[in-house]
Amino acid sequence: MINSVKTIAAELLKNNLTLSTAESCTGGLIGGAITDIAGASLFFKGGITAYSNEIKINVLGVNERTIVEFGAVSSQTVEAMVKGVCALLKTDCAISVSGIAGPGGGSIDKPVGLVYIGIKVCNTVLSHRHIFYGNRHQIRIATVKTSLCYLTSALKNHS
Hints:
The chain is of the alpha/beta class. It has a single domain (2-158), classed as CinA-like (Maf protein, Alpha-Beta Complex), CATH 3.90.950.20. 44% of the residues lie in helices and 21% in strands. The chain has 6 helices and 5 strands. It is globular and about 45 Å long. 42% of the residues are buried.
């Protein structure tokens, strides 16, 4: 993960961009991975652990109807989260994640391991759907690694 974060740092610094995170199922692990490198304060402003729908709505500005209609674990929600955290923390780029890390909480439509990842780089917002396998820890770590890869790709495409 360190190499991904170093690549992200280089791209952000080269383009004079800032980064924030809005995390649900990872509970701050993405922000932790980012701040594992020295100098992260040059581009990383902070993150919101939005574990509850209340925080998604009241802090990040996710429309309650979005959560009611599509669910907290949906592309619509992570796209709203990524936009909301950028607005709140005044950043150019962000990662958002919402998912079901298990071991409980899954359903036929939304099984354990289902994760949506939102990426925002300037005016481009993308979301990605994944089903990760393993225990809770493995699902959370896979989410962190995958979200960092998506941000790396989006930053390189932006340059």
